[in-house]
Amino acid sequence: MSNKLVIFDLDGTLLNTIGDLAAGCDHMLQLRGLPTHSFEEYCSFVGNGIMRLVERALPEELRTPEYVAAARRDLVAYYIDHIDLYTQPYEGITELVDELQRGGVKLAVASNKFQAGTDKLIKKFFPEVEFVGCDSIAKKIRVVEGIKAGAGIDNLTAVISRAEQLGQKFDYVVSRAVTEMARFMPWAWPLLRKGQRGTLPNGILYLKGGELAEELAATRRHWDLYDIRTMFDDEFFDTKRVVYTKRD
């Protein structure tokens, strides 16, 4: 399996981070004398980045750009120091990542989490694994390189590139809550090679929630849906399914 690359999402794929995100948001709300939320509510808030998480946690009348930005700063300041109180890899993930690395597979993480948080979690939970961090904005990569040097992260390579421009083909594209599937397909499809390297033929595996029939129909492809509620002891997954289509 040499000269292969697997790109993982971080939150909800490699790591269950919702407990620490919820605690950080509650801390931010308490600083402002605002009501906090239940774990179940936070499960519906996450999935589109930290700005959207903050926005959804705030009362509607306070969701101005200035207030959201200030609240985000407070959340990040607390979260970066308390990022791993509840966060843990999902069952089997550590073994999977170790096996891929032993097989010579290059590993990367694509996350909409702020970069310092991503780097800290990777260093803590996957210290022996080599990762590639990529972004098309050079100043973000310079920040990553600075964090890497300052924190002594030895298993991270920072690359200025969009994931689809890394110049390689992949067996599977695995993602979660990026965008609607009809928009996601043109990004992912050219990255996939035909064939079968695992249990399933090469293709897309995507964690989705909510009503999916109309969204998947818009792609004009056949999709298999996998109910994963019984695999995880976490209410977050009660409404989630993995959807799969093969590369043909």
List strands and helices in order, with pairings.
Elements: E1 4-8, E2 15-16, H1 18-31, H2 39-45, H3 50-57, H4 65-79, E3 88-89, H5 93-102, E4 105-109, H6 115-125, E5 131-135, H7 138-151, E6 156-160, E7 172-176, H8 181-188, E8 203-209, H9 213-217, E9 224-227, E10 240-246
Parallel strand pairs: 1-4, 4-5, 5-6, 7-8
Antiparallel strand pairs: 2-3, 8-10, 9-10
Helix pairs in contact: 1-4, 3-4, 6-7
List descriptors:
four-stranded parallel beta sheet; DNA polymerase, domain 1; 248 residues; 10 strands; 19% strand; 2 domains; alpha/beta; Rossmann fold
Structural summary, described in words:
The chain is α/β, with parallel strands linked by helices. The chain folds into two domains: 4-15 and 88-246, Rossmann fold, CATH 3.40.50; 18-79, Orthogonal Bundle (DNA polymerase, domain 1). Helix content is 37%, strand content 19%. It is built from nine helices and ten strands. It has helices spanning 18-31, 39-45, 50-57, 65-79, 93-102, 115-125, 138-151, 181-188, 213-217; strands spanning 4-8, 15-16, 88-89, 105-109, 131-135, 156-160, 172-176, 203-209, 224-227, 240-246. The strands form three sheets. A four-stranded parallel sheet has the order 1-4-5-6, covered by helices on one side. Strands 7-8-10-9 form a four-stranded mixed sheet, with no helix packed on it. Strands 2-3 form a two-stranded antiparallel sheet. Strand 7, helix 8 (181-188) and strand 8 (203-209) form a beta-alpha-beta unit. Helix 1 (18-31) packs across helix 4, helix 3 packs across helix 4 and helix 6 crosses helix 7. The two termini are 21 Å apart. The model has no long low-confidence stretch (mean pLDDT 83).
